[in-house]
Amino acid sequence: MNKADAHPTALIAPPRRLPIWLRLGLWVTRRVTGKDLLPPRLLAWYPKAAFSSGVMEALVAHRDGQLNARLLKLVRMQASFSAACPFCIDMNSSRFQQYNITQTELAAIQGLQDPAGVESFSGRERLAMEYARHISATPLSFPADLMNKMKSNFTEREIVILATTAAQVNYWARLIQALGAPPAGFIDPMEWESVDTGQLESV
Fold first, then answer.
1. What is the pLDDT of residue 195?
2. What is the pTM (predicted TM-score) of this model?
3. Structural domains for the chain
4. What is the DSSP string of 23-38?
């Protein structure tokens, strides 16, 4: 099977030839993720999109001051589930246990139980996740009460980081689903006690 036919479930096949700089980028991606990811290969049809998307992904925040790695992981996971993107759920939820995210918290992220009843979430975590859900909703709506709480609990810099983190997930969610890219296999659904495995099925 040649490379153009290697991803039969996608809407389109990647180009047979890739620019040298993109091949280098894919090599780096494989080293970091351990996966030969399909989305950047599909974007090679329009190299400007591949380059700009790669820059955005490289600069996404994973911790910043009081926004620790766990909180931003929760935001990425929440945006992924809220956008119902199998690829994003698969990638952004991998190794969630390393961030001390419990099965109960995972169920709340999926909407299987009320986050307000999960005592292990901090107040800022609950608020950031609620913000991510609104950013990922259609139509967009940001109640005044929510925004007042955001301004009372987060700095301007933190709000921008939270908004761009959730928006970045939504960018990939729309793009990846529009191109029909299936999950890359970062997680094994059998390891998730509470996950709705239907959300991990290929689009």
1. 54
2. 0.87
3. 19-58 (no CATH), 69-200 (1.20.1290.10)
4. HHHHHHHHHHHSS--H
